[in-house]
Structure formats: structure tokens, C-alpha cells
Amino acid sequence: MTATLLFQAPILAMLTALAASILIVIIATYLGKRIVEVSVISFATIVFILSCLGFVNVFFVGGSYAYYMGGWPPPVGIPYVIDQFSAPLGVVISLIFLSTILYQIKSQEERHEGRWGYSLRFLMEAGMLGLIFTGDFFHIYVMLELVGLSAIILVASRKEVKQTIEAALKYGIYDILAITIYYLSTAMVFGMFGSMCIAEISAKLGGYVSPFSGGIFADPTKALPVIVAIVVWSFTIGSAVVPQHFWLPDAHSMAPSTISAILSGLIVPINIAVLARLLFDGLRANVLPTTTIGLYILIVLGVLSSIVGAVLMVVQSDLKRLIAYSTISNLGLICIGFGVATLTSVSAAYLFIISHAFVKAALFMTAGIFIHATGSRDIRSYRGISTSMPYVALLFLIGALASIGFPPLSIFWSKLLLILSVVEKGGIYLYLVIPILITVVFEAIAQIRVLAIIYAKGTKPISYKLSKIVYASIGILIGITILIGLMPNFVFQYAGFAASDLLDFERYVRVVLGFLP
Amino acid sequence: MELQFVIMHLPYILVMLMVAICIYGAIFKSNIFKKILALYLFTDAVNLLYIIQGFRLGEAIPPTLLPELGLSEFVSRSVDPLAQYFVVTAVVIGLAEMSTLIALAIYTYRHYGTLETKKIKELRG
Questions:
Q1: Are A384 and A458 in contact (CB under 8 A)?
Q2: Domain B2-112, CATH
């Protein structure tokens, strides 16, 4: 009984979120507001607990495994791969959703989303959990649509504001373009391999001939680079890496704060995580010379993205746009980490994804409080706000310092490990130290300017009441940031497990198909 | 040889041309409605690619296993049902995409009175 529950926990988490998105609408139609709030919190808590059970199962009880949807084994059905790479991400996703929902219910900001807002949030959570667990090319397309469409509608939720609609439309067109480009790549994969299972594709690249779909139907040296380029293109639009970053600052600054937190903290890095899964486990990018081109593209775009994001951050006067550009520059660093493709660099990138998620979610939520208290998104209007709301300012201070990479907070260790891994790889990769250091410098300039304004002296005090639950919801995220910073070895050990699972495609094939051809 | 190759692969070439036109339209056209139309046609182009890949030249039959048809004959003559399954899924998803984008376009028109992206420039990008 317990073993079955542990085994099915991550799938149940995703299905609970999916069911919650429908149930919330039904509950809200017939019952009162209070009951809706209680049920929203309890659904989010259940999803979080189930994800934690999945995490416990993978690391302490059963080890990595694949769950076959409907009992159909992989080449026929859809496998859900719960391994050391995906299980911790599931916990991060459900924890951030829980904290944003707590914030959303208790804060005084944006109350008018109503039941459809909660419903779409759960739909998005289900999509994200599906996205990281799935082991099927086409299923990723379906889940990307689920995440993308609910995010687009949530960005547009303040529909009476002109700019919100403009931002949502821009985000909508480019996100759907990205997803359709990914759909094109699935058609090519289908034509080349005759199969959609990531593990089977990986096995076929190693010379396996499937009893269902045979071998490879195209010349891999010509077809594979095209497929890799299209996959990388689609995911780099979705995760706003530099040449295609223009939708991100608009969408992040115009969305409600909790949605900005989810967009910046989860959707964007999860896109990169799924890309890494496809490249390393599906297309064997770390060994196969025809697909390694994907990693080179990632490095080049990562360097561009980190520098452009960091430089543009300095000139922003809108607090949310500033944090959004910081997201772009962090995403560039994560891309560099995956592109270098050594064990250390991938673990650094993985640790970066997790710490970025917590820090950015917390920063956007505190920014939401500032914006609601002063009624303006301009940084200059927050002069001396720390005197009237010292605790919120303290949370922002820790978040901003973590975002710079101030020791001993979580992002410091990710950046340090990234530098170490680049130095370790040596050769031309040594020059990658330069963009990493540039981002640290510019990020420090931009964030310290904000902090100086917030901690400046002498303005009229603002009276603003905040519920304790709002403090708690941000406090959890900041607390985890500090906690990761205080025990880097422990966390880095787990990031190393995740990276070794990601880089070892033979283990992935064995987990999913049950044998190694 | 060259001509025969082109004729053999004509459907693929036409689909890829359509994909290129759609990506161009979605990015460079300034009217929002044209962008949405290009995205819709893009999904359809990929659907066509699936159908062409799953099709079998010669005496192809639809992928339904009828009782008077033996299993071995069905397998050797039927078109690929998997490709059609993907297309049906994508058509349903495409409906959701289009309704979302068109709803946003309607709101844009109400706020700005136009669908030209050149005139809608409140945000800096």
C-alpha cells in the first residue's frame, strides 16, 4: 500500500492538479468564497506533499523508475520518468505554486482573477509537472501547450489595462510560434525514427532496431543537425534567450505579481531543463558529433543572453522589468552551464535552476507588495520605503543580494561552481569566465541602486497592512535560499546526482525500456 | 535522376515552403490578424507533413480494422494510424490556441481601435 502510494505519488500529484483545475470552478459556482480559498490551499498542499513523497521514493526508498501510463510499456504508451533529475524539480514546482497561491489569497493585490485564475494556475501546475516527468516527444508538445495557453490567459487577467493586453498578445504570438516550431520538430523526429519515445530514440541512435518501428529511416548525419537546431530554436524562444527575449520583460512587468513569479521562476527555467533532457538523454548530445551542435548554439546564445540581460538591467527604471532582465541574464548562465556539458557544469546549472526559481519568485512577490503599496512600478517612488515596511524590505534585501551572488546565498554557489567548471574544462572554454563575471558586476550595480533607494532616509510613511501568511509565503522561499547557501556541499551532492542521471543516457534508456540494447 | 528526386519529394518540398512562408508571416507581418492566420496555417502545414509521412503509395486503405480484412493484409496495406492520431490531437490543441489569440486580438481592437502592430507601441519590448 505504502509502496504503491510512493510509486504513484508524482503521477497522482499531476492528476490532482489537473482535477483541481476543474473542481475549483465547480466549487466556486455552488459554494462560498471561504470554502474556495480553503480548498485551493488544500489542493496545493496535497500536490506538494505528493511531490515530496516522489522525491523521498527516488532518493531514499526505490531509486529512479519509469511509470507507464495506463500500463502500456514504452514504445507503445507514454512513460513518465521519475529520476534524480525530475523528482527535485517536481518539489520545487509544487512548493512555489503553494507559496504563490498563499500569497494570492491573502495579499490585497489583484483580487479579481477569481475562480478561473485558480483553475488556470492548477492547469499550469499540471502541465509543468507533466513537462518535467514525461518521456515522450509528442507529450511534451501537449504539455507545452497546456502551460503556455494558461500562462497567456493569466498574463492577460487585468484585461481593462491596455498594456496588459498588448503584452499578453506579444507573449501569446511568440510562445505559440515557439510551440508550433517544436511541433514541426516532432514531425521530423517521427519521420526519422518512427517512434516518439525519447528512450527508444536514444537507443536507436546507439544501433538498436525496435520490433515495433524498425531502425532509423534517414541519414543521421544530415537529418539530426536540422532536428537539433529546430528543437533548440523553439525552446530558446520559450525560455527567452537573447535574440528572442523581447516578449519576456513586457509579459513579466504587466502580469500580476504571482504570475510574474511563476513565469520567471518556473516556466522559463523549466523550458531549459526539458531542452537539456531532450538533448542529453534523447539525442545524446554529449557524445554524438552530429548533435553536439546544439550545445555550441546553447553556449553562444548563453553568452549573448547573460551579457545583454545584465547590461539592459542597469538602465531600467521599472522594478519588475529590472528583475525580468535579471532573469534573462541568469538564463544565459544556465544555458552556458548546460552547454559546457561536464558533470560539474551541469550540476551547477541544475543548482542554478533551483536557486533561481526560489530567488526570482520571492523577488517578484516582494516587488508586488511595493507596487501595491505605492501604486507605482517606478523604482524612484520607493524612496525610503524601508522605514514603513521594514520586514518586506528585509526580504527584498536578502533576495536582491542572493540575485547578485552575494556569499553565502544560494546563487553565489551556483555561479562559483559554474566558474570552476569552466576553468576545469579549460581550452577555449576558459573565456566563458568573462561573461559570468560581467553579469555579476552589472547585476550588483543594478540591484544595489534599488537597495540604496529603498533604504534611503526621510519620506512620508505609508501605512500598509499585510497578513502574516503573505510574509510566510515569501519567507519560505527566502528561507530556502539561505538554507541552500548555508549547506552547499549537501545540496551540491544532490545536484551532482541529478546531473549524472541527465548525462548518463544509457541509465535513462535502461530505466525506461527496462533493458539496454 | 535529379528531376525524379524532386518529383518524388514534391509534397515534402511544398510543405517546407509553406512552413517557411508561415514563419515569415508570423514574425514579419505587421497586422495581428495576419500573424494569427500564419500561425494557424503553420500548424496545418505540420499536420500535412505528418499525413504525408504516414501515407502509403499504392493501394492504401484507411486505418480501420474491418472484420472482412485479415490482420496481415491490414498491416501491409493500411496507412499509419499513429500519424493521424497526432494530427487529431494537434487540431484540437490548435482550436484552443486560436480561440485564445483571437480573444486577445478582440481586446486589443477594443483598447487601441486598430490591429496594426506599428500603431500599438505602449511597451518598449
A1: yes
A2: 1.10.287
pLDDT at A489: 86
For chain B, give every domain's residue range.
2-112
B100–A contact, CB cutoff 8 A: yes
- Residue A508 contacts residue A199 (beta carbons within 8 Å): yes
Q: In angstroms, what separates the C-alpha of B39 from chain A's closest C-alpha?
A: 7
Which positions ≥6 away from A64 have C-beta within 8 Å?
A: A58, A81, A82, A83, A84, A501, A507, A511
β-pair partners for A143 = none
| pTM (two decimals) | 0.93
The tens digit of pLDDT for each residue in A414-469 reads 999 999 999 988 888 888 899 889 999 999 999 999 999 888 887 767 777 788 88
Q: What's the pLDDT band for A194 if we cut at 50, 70, 90?
A: confident
d(CA A457, CA B114): 46
pLDDT band at B1 (very low <50, low <70, confident <90, very high): low
Using CB atoms, which residue from B35, B49, B111 is nearest to A165? B111
Whether ipTM exceeds 0.90: yes
Chain A interface, best mutation among B46, B52, B115, B116, by max A CB count within 10 A: B46
Tell me the DSSP string of B39-85.
HHHHHHHHHHHHHHHH--SSS-B-S---TTS-HHHHHHHB--HHHHH
The minimal CB distance from B26 to the residues A153, A173, A246 is found for: A173
Task: Judge: A162–B111 Cβ closer than 8 Å, yes or no.
Answer: yes
**CB–CB of A272/A357 below 8 Å?**
no
